[in-house]
Amino acid sequence: MTARRSVSLESDPLSPGQVMAHVQDDSAGAIDVFVGTTRRYTEGRETVELTYEAYETMAVAEMDRLADEACARWPLTGVAIHHRVGTVPVGEISVVIAVSSPHRAAALDACRFLIEGLKADVPIWKRERYADGSIEWVRPLG
Amino acid sequence: MTARRSVSLESDPLSPGQVMAHVQDDSAGAIDVFVGTTRRYTEGRETVELTYEAYETMAVAEMDRLADEACARWPLTGVAIHHRVGTVPVGEISVVIAVSSPHRAAALDACRFLIEGLKADVPIWKRERYADGSIEWVRPLG
Amino acid sequence: MSTSVTVRLFAALRERVGEDRVSVFLEGDASVRDLVEAVVRKHPEVAPFERYIRVAVNSRYVSGDSRVAAGDEVAFISPVSGG
Amino acid sequence: MSTSVTVRLFAALRERVGEDRVSVFLEGDASVRDLVEAVVRKHPEVAPFERYIRVAVNSRYVSGDSRVAAGDEVAFISPVSGG
């Protein structure tokens, strides 16, 4: 089966419903949607906003490669990976991954594979601005 | 931490965005949303619509119990389980489960636990109406 | 002492019996297992479901050893198929 | 024969070097490992990142043994933190 596919970097706010619409299909019985948001507190420190920088051509290529790999491993009817770039205030969405399949286990497994793969391999970097005024790239040395 | 909680049976169409809104929280960095829809084809047979019947008081009690158990096992900031009852045409949504957490693994694990628990224990039954005119309860003998 | 117990039925089981609840009389300190047997004796059409049924008392699944008291809300839960 | 190779930098690494790309000359049939060493020689401030960097050629991660050819788009990818 050929899965619906949508991969993109966006500078405007992400809408989970719109990302989900890319994977909806009459033959899907299950959709799993993972949404990453900017968290206010991390280990007691207050974050004001995040800024995401991407190596854009490669980020899209890597997201496509992850989608290919997910489609090869699971019977999927749709895969969408949308990541925001630029500044994302607390409470807003940085990433939405949606996967549809006839089978719920496949949708859940593939969604987890995609978020883990994205966090490991997609060349996007996050800079955190804290309420105390400091600005830091997140774990630049791994 | 006390998690936001929303459990319900609905006779009107479900909106994933509205269910997700119940679990959004500044301290959540991850939200996983599972959406079950009516699939058109199952093993080559075409479905026209499903009808869900619930033992309503117990279904809500069991969904609450599953939410309690998920909150005991994972650090969650929100849990929502909304299931539709009555007739659901092909392509419409029968269930939405949304889980938020500071940590993505917890959100993903808890969401899977809830959909598996719902399918095993919540007293809701599905009757399938096929394009060939036949009507059948789904696996009434397990 | 004899108690009347009403059992709620749903979905395929309800259609099979043609009623959404059935009542049986139980003697003395009856268990859930006794209740299921009494219902099957009175409504033999329930027999094919017998080994698949779980019993709920006051909206909770209970084991076959549990006791049933007057005033309990009892339901027979055939294999569920929500989601 | 000597080739000029330009390497794109991003995020913390870009800020550390103060440039979004750096160029080095490589002799003959150079590997990715040779390229990294040449960049670190010219820009010692890259050294703390050296063991964490993955190298991408034409938008794909490559191993240290891979060759770099004129015209390739090369990037140093420090540990990513998207999601």
Report a brief summary of the structure.
With 142 residues, chain A is α+β, with helices and mostly antiparallel strands. Chain A contains three helices and nine strands; from the N terminus they run E-H-E-E-E-H-E-E-E-H-E-E.
Explain this structure to me?
- The complex is a heterotetramer, with two copies of chain A (142 residues) and two copies of chain C (83 residues).
- Chain A is of the alpha+beta class and 142 residues long.
- The termini of chain A are far apart.
- Chain A has helices at residues 16-21, 56-73, 104-121, and strands at residues 4-10, 30-37, 41-42, 45-54, 78-84, 86-89, 93-101, 124-130, 135-137.
- Chain A has three helices and nine strands, in the order βαβββαβββαββ.
- Chain A has one domain (4-136): Alpha-Beta Complex (Aldehyde Oxidoreductase, domain 3), CATH 3.90.1170.40.
- Chain C is α+β, with helices and mostly antiparallel strands and 83 residues long.
- Chain C has one domain: Ubiquitin-like (UB roll), CATH 3.10.20.30.
- In chain C, 22% of the residues lie in helices and 30% in strands.
- Chain C has two helices and five strands; from the N terminus they run βαβαβββ.
- Chain C has a five-stranded mixed β-sheet with strand order 2-1-5-3-4, covered by helices on one side.
- The longest helix of chain C has 11 residues, at 32-42.
- The model of chain C has no long low-confidence stretch (mean pLDDT 95).
- The interface between A and B is medium-sized, with 29 and 29 residues.
- β2 (30-37) of chain A pairs antiparallel with β2 (30-37) of chain B.
